[in-house]
From TrEMBL:
This is Shikimate dehydrogenase (NADP(+)). Gene3D superfamilies: Leucine Dehydrogenase, chain A, domain 1, NAD(P)-binding Rossmann-like Domain. The gene is aroE. Residues 9-91 form the Shikimate dehydrogenase substrate binding N-terminal domain. Shikimate binds at residues 17-19, 64, 89, 104, 220, 248. It comes from Phyllobacterium myrsinacearum. Residues 121-193 form the Quinate/shikimate 5-dehydrogenase/glutamyl-tRNA reductase domain. Belongs to the shikimate dehydrogenase family. It catalyses: shikimate + NADP(+) = 3-dehydroshikimate + NADPH + H(+).
Amino acid sequence: MVDYPRAFVTGYPIRHSRSPLIHGYWLRQFGLEGSYQAVEVTPDAFSGFILTARDNGFAGGNVTIPHKEMAFSLCEKRDSAAEEIGAVNTLWFENGILHGGNTDAYGFLANLDSLSPGWSNRKSALVLGAGGASRAVVFALKERGFTDIRIVNRTIERARELADRFEVSGGAHGWDAMPELLLGASLIVNTTSLGMSGKDELAIDLTGADSDALVTDIVYVPLETPLLQAARSRGLETADGLGMLLHQAVPGFERWFGKRPEVTAELRNIVLADM
Ligand code: ATR
């Protein structure tokens, strides 16, 4: 058995994951002996993989689609973000016990903190989408003290569920309410898959948006989504989705390998070159 720390990222499929590139960069930067590998595991095999991971020499790992909810139920202990969001993306063992955390909300906040200090002085947010990514974003915004969070989704029932779960004051809305919802929204976050390569474009008219609004997208392929292009052409501040991906990886690396890594411009360029 190897005696250096090992970590994994597992999903199904997993071949497009950039996580090995990110953690491999940090391992090299610190000159650490350690490994981080992608392991493709089907949903049927997932619990067996996780429950034997420690015996197989893993300090922990990341979990991505479609395993985040299953990971949540396998953990004996979970951090508060995972509990609130209902999904786990980071696993580690402590005294032999499987712990789970969710670093997506942390990644979302840390990215905006680094790109736009003071961004969270804004208190009114419009969140597009009501899936798993949206849960992390809404949780993060509540943590940061946003008092007016409006959730808009194609399927209004999902928006309602999310608004109830986090008791948001701005309520749940269908897509056609967008023009009014934009008025006064000083942060606009896309958490839907619209705008991603191969998917439909996110058609949104930003005319009513505040002139000091910050527009951010969790989609990062392509980096310049149509939403961000539209925002920039109106002179609005923007933040792309790649930073969230990079920042959400930081807490896991620190747990498994014992060093707190940095999200550098060089790392960003390495990941961009791979896209
Ligand atoms: P994730 O966990 O990555 O957030 P998800 O749970 O599948 O993924 O959620 C995807 C989000 O994108 C949802 O808000 C979804 O809207 P619905 O709840 O109505 O499905 C949204 N989405 C995906 N395709 C869309 C489309 N063509 N038009 C509008 N919204 C779309």
